[in-house]
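Repro:
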Amino acid sequence: MPDVITPSSSKNNPSSKKNLKRIFFGFVLIFLAVFSLAVAMYWPEFQKQFLPEMAVPAREKIAPVYTPAQETKVAAGEKKSALKEGFLWVDPVSSQYIVTLGKTHGVREGKKLNVYNGTNLLGQVAVDRALETVSYVLPEKSADISKDAYYRVVAE
């Protein structure tokens, strides 16, 4: 006699319960993936609307860079002298002392500039040749200036 195949009830079959759990878990994972994608795409709009202080790009939060040229812009009516700061270093090729202050900063030949290492005064240098934006200087004999470092220079 032929064997009769009878359909088994899904209520009594433990493997069908496992399959239902797996299908449900799969749908939950798909839903979470779609939700995460939507949040990632609309996050900038949400941030602008509900968190405006966080929406500002990081570049705009950084304080502006200080340049000595900003202090030299003085109104025509004022005769206030502003400190001009720059850097001094020794050119390794020509062994000349160079300062990042020039004629545009009011530095002329013969002017004395103070040289600092941090806040310590090392001595003075005299301007030998002033160009537009840099100057060649000669250190005084008492100034202890190393050829391998950068120093802060102040013109008053």
